[in-house]
Structures are given as structure tokens and as C-alpha cells.
């Protein structure tokens, strides 16, 4: 149930709602409890796969807030309490089969996802780095992308040497007429390039979930720290950037937290807007 006064807060996970140890601090959890008890709603919005977000919701005891889960940079909006897909945007399989060799020709690693696993071309440094943070199962497809049979919500490229080759790849994808207007490529940090449908994105998810819940966009808040959070920060009625965030996120925000994600940066924002 929502009313004219109901508010909806979208939270990125890593670098925002979670601290460096990938936990929610006690003070931030208390502020979330107060927000929820005031009748307001919560959505977790991450580049992570849905199964990773759902694990985090359980582990961090967020399920008591009946949160919505927004996965794959806004491509999949899911209601855990009912198991309902509210919206799901996917890449076409022919595009996956075109993009994978293009990416590999630049010497870059990429993987994608099905409903339960990361689908990776190799058991190597990149997948081990990724799953140290996102603790989810993965499966090797030696002839990748052969074996990818479900339309995925996104592909992820990883370059642990830094962003320069990822930025070059993003420019190549965006300028390719085969993908123009249909596929977006943007970095979520210096090592990760997210590739997903252009009609997805965290900002589009803000509008879609607010409409679904009949909550005015003016009553929405969104907090993030990275470049892939910018559209969400801009789309919300009040966009919040973590002070530990990327300059693009800080520039896009209406409000910047006074402390970082390790020092309860979100708690005052929540409490002051109940």
C-alpha cells in the first residue's frame, strides 16, 4: 500500500549502502528501520546479478523492509516478496554472439549470466577477482559464447590493468551502427565495463518502479557512488552521491553525504527525509 506521502529510496550496494566489508553498519540499518516504520519503501539497485542481490538482502536482513531488487544496472526489476518480475530487459542472443569475439579481439575478458550462474570463458584471474566481491557461482563455457542459450540482461568486461582499454571498447560499441540506440556500454569502476540494453539503466528503473507503485517521482530518492549510478541520481526527485563517490556522481547529485559508506553516510539523509 502506498499513499500520497509515501517515499521510495533507491540504494546502490557497493560503495553506498554497504561498507568496505560488504555489510550495512548498525547506524545505517537503524535509519533504514525508521524509514520503513514511517511507511516508506526501499529498492536495492545494483549492477550485480539478481541472485547476488537476493543473497545480500537475506544476509543483511533487508527482507524485513520488503525491498524491491533492481539488478543488472536497471535491466531487471524484481519483487522478492512475491517472486514477480516487474520489468526485465535483455540483450538479443545474436548481439551477444557478435560482441563476444569483438571484445576478445581487443584482448579483453568478458562474461555474461543465466538465471543462476555467471557464464565465463575461462577459469582465470578476472572471474576470481569478480567473485571475491560478488560471491556467486560460475560456470566455464570453453567455446564462449557458445553455450549461452538464455537472453542475458548484461555482459561484463573486466580489465584489471585499468580503464583505458575499457573506454576504447565502450566507444567502439556505442559508435557501431549495429548496436546504435540499442546497447549501452559504461564503466561502473576503473576495472568493469557494463554492457546492457539502452532501454534499461538505473535511471529508467527509477521511473518504472515509481510508476508501478504509483509514487510520484518527486517522492523518490536515489543514492550511489559510481558512473553507472549517474542516471539513477539524475532521475530521482532527490539524487544523493556518496562523498566517496566518482566525480560524475557527485556532479549529478542534489545532495552529497558528509561521511562515506564506512561512516554511516546515508543515515542522516534517511532520517532527515522521513
Topology:
Layout (H helix, E strand, L loop, with lengths): L7 E4 L14 H12 L3 E5 L4 H10 L8 E4 L4 E4 L4 E5 L4 H13 L3 E5 L4 E3 L4 H9 L4 E3 L14 E4 L5 H12 L7 E7 L2 E6 L4 H12 L6 E5 L5 H6 L2 E4 L5 H6 L2 E2 L10 H6 L2
Parallel strand pairs: 1-2, 1-12, 2-3, 7-8, 12-13, 13-14
Antiparallel strand pairs: 3-4, 4-5, 6-7, 6-9, 9-11, 10-11
User: Distance between the terminal alpha carbons, to the nearest Å?
Assistant: 17 Å
Provide the CATH architecture of the largest domain.
3-Layer(aba) Sandwich
Structure annotation, total helices: 9
Q: Which percent bin holds the helix content?
A: 25-40%
Query: β content, as a range?
Result: 15-25%
If strands are numbered along the chain, what order do they take across the biggest sheet?
5-4-3-2-1-12-13-14
Which structural class matches the secondary elements? alpha/beta
Task: Fill in the CATH topology of the largest domain.
Answer: Rossmann fold
Q: Could you state the CATH homologous superfamily of the largest domain?
A: HAD superfamily/HAD-like
Total separate domains: 2
CATH class descriptor name of the largest domain: Alpha Beta
Largest sheet: 8 strands, mixed
Average pLDDT over all residues = 96
Low-pLDDT runs of 5+ residues are none
H-E string: EHEHEEEHEEHEEHEEHEHEHEH
Shape: globular
Radius of gyration: 18 Å
